[in-house]
Write a structure and sequence with these properties.
The complex is a heterodimer. Helix content of chain A is 35%, strand content 11%. Chain A is of the alpha+beta class. In chain A, α2 crosses α3 and α2 packs antiparallel against α4. The N and C termini of chain A lie far apart (78 Å). Chain B has eight helices and no strands. Classes of the chains: A alpha+beta, B mainly alpha.
């Protein structure tokens, strides 16, 4: 008899709670935006924050309300932009896939150091001590603040300079925001040429502390057929809208600061070559 | 009133849920990566534990005890707490969206949390009255929040420390938790009242 009462009491308790929840789920129902949910499903889901929103769900909500364009997800590229556009019922605009590029070639054997740093393994901490151990004020400290923050594990430190694995990089831009030296830039994924220096010191000064620093000799500027490369503030920079990936600047650069990946060369820049094959 | 204050002080410091009773160690280790997350978790636990202490105490004294069903209290409490958390979640989503956004992801995590169930069972075991139960549930959760926030702060620093390789990550976190627990043992020598 006892067991029946116990069973009955629990059945009633369960039924009451069940009914209460059922009523509550109807009474407290919050209309969910179906579009936002569908968009969340097609987004990559890495929550990297590259779009400027706090996560994929937040971006989805913004897109569904028309506050953000369909191609806002830098990581997803064309594929995701098309899927999102389809849900929103509009035509997708073309997105340019980007990748991160560390604009420094001052490896351990090439760049001079002011002192030996033995503190916390983080660039932001090292910056507190006279701007880091490298003499160059715009040199990669090689302590991996970017590598720690990268949501895709695409950055590693090689010879004291951060190196981006283009296979893994999705161009979210988290490293660009993290780097205390501001020497990581987003460049178009298909570009094969970059200036591996951001030192704004005069040529002679740059020459004194780094073997692979830009000395603003302007040879690249003179040799560029499309006028894409300009020297400003004692450092060359490339306008990727004009650059045709001919590689003349890299060929002529006397300091070998401008790096050019030939399509057939596959030393770590294979993805860039691959990207040409895809077209 | 004095008894309740003593009860609350002892629940927060002397019989801290994490450091002396080892309840709720799962969220303690799992949600203590960032101080902000730890605070969110602590607030969610405080909220649920206070309400569930009140509800389970009433359920036990008004329903289970008169019917002689006190041997089924664990099942009854799990059922009620789970239902309650679901209800609170829906309620917050509708009426207090800002609080829901802050606590939302933590609420389902504590549905069957042992600290919440533990507080309900301790209330029964110690024979606390309704007011005492609510005070105990609330202050035990405040103790939990304090513990998890302190620990998250220590872990934030640990990330930049360089312990020997086998100790990196979880091992050094566990050792740290043990050291904090030992520090909290200092409170057990206090005599209050």
């Amino acid at each position: 008899m006892d067991i029946l009462i116990a069973a009955l009491i629990f059945a009633v308790l369960g039924a009451v709670i069940g009914a209460l929840l059922a009523v509550a789920s109807k009474a407290f129902e919050v209309p969910v935006d179906e579009k936002a949910e569908k968009i969340t499903a097609v987004l990559p889901g890495a929550n990297c924050g590259g779009c400027g929103y706090s996560g994929c769900a937040a971006l989805a909500e913004a897109i569904s309300k028309g506050k953000a364009p369909c191609g806002s997800c830098t990581v997803g590229g064309d594929e995701v932009a098309e899927a999102v556009a389809e849900i929103m019922g509009v035509k997708a605009e073309k997105t340019v896939r980007m990748r991160a590029q560390v604009m420094c070639s001052g490896t351990l054997d090439k760049a001079k150091h002011k002192y030996i740093y033995e503190g916390i393994e983080n660039c932001i901490a090292a910056m507190q001590l006279g701007g880091g151990s490298k003499v160059c004020p715009n040199g990669c400290l090689g302590l991996g603040a970017c590598a720690q923050k990268c949501p895709f594990g695409a950055i590693e430190i090689v010879d004291g300079v951060a190196k981006v694995d283009y296979h893994k990089c999705k161009g979210c831009g988290v490293c660009v925001a993290t780097c205390p030296k501001h020497i990581i830039k987003l460049v178009p994924f298909d570009s094969r040429v970059y200036v591996g220096c951001m030192s704004v010191d005069k040529g002679a000064v740059t020459r004194s502390y780094c073997e692979s620093g830009c000395i603003s000799c302007r040879i690249c500027e003179k040799n560029c057929p499309t006028g894409a490369i300009t020297v400003k503030d004692f450092v060359a920079s490339i306008d990727y809208d004009k650059c045709i990936n001919c590689g003349k600047c890299a060929e002529k650069c006397p300091r070998k600061v401008i790096h050019f990946a030939k399509p057939e060369v596959s030393n770590g820049v294979k993805a860039v070559a691959d990207s040409k094959d895809r077209e | 009133m004095k008894e309740i204050l003593i009860l609350m002080f002892s629940a927060i410091f002397i019989e801290n849920f994490i450091f002396s009773k080892f309840y709720g160690c799962c969220p303690f280790m799992g949600v203590s990566e960032k101080p902000s997350n730890a605070l969110g978790m602590g607030m969610a636990v405080t909220f649920v534990m206070t309400v569930s202490s009140a509800v389970t105490q009433l359920l036990y004294t008004k329903v289970l005890l008169p019917l002689g069903l006190d041997y089924l209290k664990i099942i009854a409490f799990i059922l009620v707490i789970a239902g309650l958390v679901q209800f609170i979640e829906m309620f917050l989503k509708k009426f207090v969206p800002s609080l829901y956004n802050a606590l939302g992801i933590f609420l389902p995590l504590i549905t069957t949390n042992c600290a919440v169930l533990g507080a309900a069972l301790v209330n029964i075991q110690e024979g606390y009255t309704f007011a005492e139960s609510v005070a105990f549930g609330f202050s035990a959760a405040v103790g939990f929040t304090m513990a998890i926030v302190i620990f998250a702060g220590v872990r934030a620093r640990l990330r930049f420390a360089e312990p020997p390789k086998p100790f990196r990550g979880m091992p050094i976190a566990l050792i740290t938790a043990g050291l904090i627990a030992m520090a909290f043992m200092g409170f057990s020598g206090m005599s209050i009242g």
